[in-house]
Structure formats: structure tokens, C-alpha cells
Amino acid sequence: MNAASAADADITQLLRQWSDGRDEAFREVLSITYSRLRLMAVASMRRERRDHTLQPTALVAELYLRLAGAKPGDWKDREHFYSFCARAMRWILTDHARRRTRAKRRAGLVLPLTPDILWLGEHEEDVFDLDRALSRLEEIDSRKAKIVELRVYLGCTAEETAGILNLAKSTVDRDMRLACAWLFRELRPEK
User: Fold this and answer.
1) Mind listing the pLDDT tens digit for each residue in 63-77?
2) How far apart are CA 14 and CA 98, in angstroms?
3) CA nearest to 110, candidates 119, 152, 132
4) Alpha-carbon distance 24 to 45, whole Å?
5) Residues 3-44 pLDDT 10s
6) 8 Å CB contact between 41 and 56
7) 158/183 Cα distance (integer angstroms)
8) 131: CB partners within 8 A, 6+ apart
């Protein structure tokens, strides 16, 4: 077993222990996953506007607060954990954008969210529209929604996404293309 496989097995085992009520396991999961989550937060924040007030470290800290405040679920494995983290980062960024929009109400704000969806980010409402559309996509095809979350909100590469979801990279690439096409039709029906 290589080091990555051992770490993945450790994460899965610790998540199960945390679900069983062992609080120390939560701290160990955070210790093991911090570097990766921090890198993903950095990648995610690169897609945000330059004057964003939330920093990657703060994004991970907010994620940790949400994890700590949540009831330990029945964590299945690292995929389940990272998918939850992607969704939580999505919620954090969406909530942050809502607060900022309410506070500023500035016209012309541009949110370049991701190079995978270049047309997204033309309007300040796009972050809210994407959140709503991803919720609808999840009802239709949860795997595609997870892929978009991991790619857009955690900044995972196609290879990292494939590893987290235990899929082939070609499947991730295909699902991302289909999800982007669906999102375009959903978010830009007039075009």
C-alpha cells in the first residue's frame, strides 16, 4: 500500500470513528486533511474576484467550524467527506457573496468563478444562480453535481476529482462537459 492509499484508509477509518462518537478522530481528520483542503481553498479563491475579503485560510476555518458544529454523520469514506467539504465551501462562498451583495449592492460586480464555465461570472447574481442550479442538477444527476462542486468550489483538477470520486479521468471530463452544457441551458436559456 502506497502512502496515498494509507492516508485515504486512515481518513476513512477516522471518519467512521468520528461518526461513532470519538471526538479525537475529528481532530485527527482535520490534521490529515488540512493541507489538501487549504490547497483546494487557495485554488477556489483564485476564481473569486481579486478584492475578495475571504482568504483561503478563513475559508478552511469556516469549513472547520461548520464541520465541528454538525452532528457527525455516517461518514462512508474520504469521497463522502471531500464531497461534503466541496458542498460546504460552496455554501460558505454563496453565503459570503449574499452578505457582500446585501452590504454593497454594487452594480457591475464581476465574479469570475471558474475557467471551466467562462460565461459564468458576468453578473453578481451568478453565484446565487449557480447554487440554485447545482441543487437542481443534484436532483437529476448527483455525480455531475459533485464533479462541478469539486472542480469549481474546491478547485480540484480533473485528476484530483477522479481520485476523490474513484472515477476515470475521462468520465470526469465527459461529465464536466455535460454538466457545463446543462448549466448553460439552465442559467442562460435566452441564448
Assistant:
1) 888 887 776 666 778
2) 34
3) 119
4) 30
5) 555 566 688 888 888 888 888 888 898 888 888 888 878 777
6) yes
7) 18
8) 90, 91, 94
